[in-house]
Amino acid sequence: MKRILVVEDEPLIAMEVESILEDGGHVVVGVARDADAAFAMAEREKPDAATMDIDLARKTSGLDAAERLYRRLGVRSVFVSSRIDARVIAAAADFEPLGFVSKPPWKTELLAALRKLE
Asked: pTM of the full predicted structure?
């Protein structure tokens, strides 16, 4: 069981990710809609990992949020986005992503990415 922060600005996708994680035996420590909220929540809740959308509310970047979480708190991310391409994968490489899952998220792919923490 891991403690996971969900970073997603679309409420229905956030609820779906949360449901997948909880069904997989994980604890969702919170849902953040933008990069600043994600970092503040991560500082407070100390998650083991985050699920991260690429485009967040308030025109903030999931790539920037994931890098900040990794560099400052050691929290790695699974990217859950409809915008996963070679540029995104290359940009994320320096902060050791756990994986990349296309939207809508598939339960098996998302939970498999989180198993890399074990």
From this structure: 0.96
Pairing of strands 76-81, 3-7: unpaired
Provide the terminal-to-terminal Cα distance of the chain, rounded to the nearest Å: 10
Q: What is the pLDDT of residues 9-56, one digit of tens each?
A: 999 999 999 999 999 999 999 999 999 999 999 999 999 999 999 999
Q: How far apart are CA 19 and CA 7, in angstroms?
A: 14
Q: Which residues contact 99 (CB under 8 A, 6 or more apart)?
A: 78, 79, 109, 112, 113, 116
Q: At what angle do helices 107-114 and 11-23 cross, to 10 degrees?
A: 60
Cα separation, 25 vs 77, whole angstroms: 18
Question: C-alpha distances in angstroms, 110 versus 9, 17, 40?
Answer: 18, 9, 24
CATH architecture entry for 3-117: 3-Layer(aba) Sandwich (3.40)
- What are 54's two structure tokens? 């690429």
